[in-house]
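Can you give me the bound-state structure? Components:
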Amino acid sequence: MNIRLRIVTVVTLFAIGTVAVVLWAPTVGSTSISLAKAFDRSIPWEENVDAQIFFVARLPRVLSGALVGATLAAAGVVLQAMLRNPLATPFTLGVSAGGALGAMLAIAFGLEVGMMGVSSIPIASFAGSLVAIGIVYWLASSQKRGLSTNVLLLAGVTLNSFFSALILFVQYLSDFTESFRTIRWLMGDLDVGSYSPLIAALPFVVAAFAVFAILPRTLNVLTLGDDVAAARGVEVVRTQRLAFLSASLATGAAVSLGGPIGFIGIIVPHLVRLMVGSDHRIVLPAAALFGAAFTVLCDLGARTIMAPLELPVGIITALIGGPFFLWLLVKKS
Amino acid sequence: MTPTQTTKESKSKNTKHSNLLWLASFVSFVIVFASFVVAFQPRAQRIISLVPALTEMLYAVGAGPQVVAVSSYDEYPPEVTALPRVGALIDPDTERIIALKPDLVITYGSQVDLQAQMKRAAIPSFDYRHGGLSHILVTMKELGVRTGHVAEADQAVAAIESRLAAVRANVAGKRRPRTLLVFSREPRTLRNIYVSGGRGFLHEMLVIAGGENVFSDIDKESVQVSTETILARAPEVILELRPKEIPAGQPMRDELASWSRLASVPAVRNKQLLFISGHAVTVPGPRVADSVARMAKALHP
Amino acid sequence: MLSAEDVSFRYAPDGPLVVNGVSVRLAAGALVGILGPNGSGKTTLLRLLSGTRRPSAGRVMLGDQPLDRLSRRDVARRIAVVPQETELAFEYSAIEIVLMGRHPHLGVFTVEGPEDIRIAREALAATGTTDLADRPFHELSGGEKQRVVIAAALAQSAALLLLDEPTASLDLGYQLEVSSLLLRLNQDHGVTMAISTHDLNLAASICRELILMRDGKVLASGPTDTVLTPENVRRLYDVEADVHLHSETGHMTVVPVRRVTR
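Here's the bound-state model for the whole set.
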């Protein structure tokens, strides 16, 4: 029984699959392009439509999809472990509701807070997420014994309801076009058209993943329960803080980039656990990799199924998510 | 001719004549009756309009003085700023509407609750459904009838039609540039771009103005397009409709810069990024002729 | 080795004292039973002893150091806890659970090596659960689960074991198995143990010392045969009981006769 070997082998297999998907996805789409032309340096940039489609339209989109997918899946794993509940999602604790409210305020009131090549809506969304994280964290830490997962859950659910009500209110105040745009944002959109939003989200995602890297075995032990985990040497409160903050920050960044794309944070961890077991040292990286590939493939479907029209990617993930859960339910019973 | 044949022929001729006479009287009777009906159509004197486009039409056919209240989003003509507001599509203020004692309420076709309430209050309502360019003219005529301004309505419609015809004539024979007609996008980026498909009054305006819609094959009024699709369709002109004028200087440069990412699009390469601003361009009302003229001017300077 | 000096604890700032001025001494190699009815503060006392809660008053010493000065890892290397119940949110195999006991001995990025796996397998062997190693934990019976959890605590290689109601959910057969296992661990491997239980006979059968707790206070403590008297049983449980020395097993046995009112 060689644990290190198993971890390395499984994660490498997932990595190969994901890299293959990410390399393949930009080569297909609603328009057929010639890869040879796209990579032909001799054709001037302004005249090379194939290159533009590949490098301006598709590549940033695929990379965003991979980033959003990896982030939401990993955040889902971490939060499920921390809350000891396989039904938890990255959106359970109110982060995406904060992000949605921020985005809606920007859309409805035409806020101009764009900077460094990133437009207003992602920035407002991220700010909203940070506010939500702050509120939930403050509520949950006001207990004497550090972070209580029950209070965390309650605070998150409450915040979700409250922010959803505010979102409805903002929609009501908006005119028709703005209202439609806010609804559209909620369905997810990975067509970033440039690398700036991606680069802007990257530092937060990298920071979050750096924290994720030290959590896995601790998350395993945390499954046993707070007291037992503490007895096995886990600093429970510190771990919960790290897990909550890193997962929420990552979720906020992902939502600001592509909108609140649902189901990735719960389908992917489930599927991965079904495939590789529950050892978080494997589940966490495997889920990130699988989440990236899954999202890229969903977006590929979104941009090709009804070509030249596009489906919002959140609808594809929802269409897969619903039946997936039905199947899980049937399987369990 | 035998006597019997003559009688038969003259008899059939007589029958034919009397049939014709019956038909003529019947038709005249119908015409007279219809005119009575038309003439005695109650002319609305207190009109409330929830649809900004139709408010404009009312003023265009001379029924302005009869308008007592408008929607929250009405801006034109300037006279409406003084009028009371009664809500809009999702939040019509029924109480206020009834309190103002209107004899005609113009609603959106989808406002079924409001229509039911108007019916209960015995207030006639005019239900507007969105349509193409010709529908605008038909609606204006209908409003003319309902408000007792038939002649003015006909005149207004005729004026619009002749202006449209003039534009058509002007651009006839000229090459129609492949145009991307954008009516909405996220400010300063290229996300969430909505263009006109091959249907609806925006598309029709573009056609009259001498442009060819690159998305005419999509049978939808509103299409959200991706970066890839724009690059693939390579429009020669990008025509953006904006509710407000973009200030010159940095804001304008920012807007132009957003498109510059799509360097291979002919419109970008040849700097054919045109903006038409103002509330009027996206309102399917009497100012369409103006909008079409502006479009034509932009496409064929 | 492990001692609680006049510790008290309350869960809520204005709540009642669940543990009230309790002093306990666990000498190396001891096998102590903490007895008392539900709500007597046994579980809380164990939590204080293992360091997962800090006493509101008094202190707990591990060796010559106060427990709260040590990191969780340091404590976990010396004290292992067997909880009353284990509910897992995710599916792990038995050996994965046992390997979690190695956590305090591994660095952040260290993966369990051959030595750790050997220790885990030994722990499984000691609890007679070797053939359950690759079975999913939730598929095991109550007794099997409890033995695996004990194995996990053993894998921590701690000198001290604190067990909370280890036989509560087990049937008679498993009760015997587990109690003889614990006795063996203490006598053959020198593991110091404190077992909290409300099962008088279990305590009588293996514990050499008893601490009787009621309403957060220590009623009596000392060697089993001196402490386990009908008088003490009445004071503890409001029950009149017969306390005999059982001829075949050599243990004290307690047979409840009737309830008495205070």
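A couple of observations. Residues 189 and 258 of chain B are 5 Å apart (CA to CA). Chain B has two domains: 47-166, 174-299.
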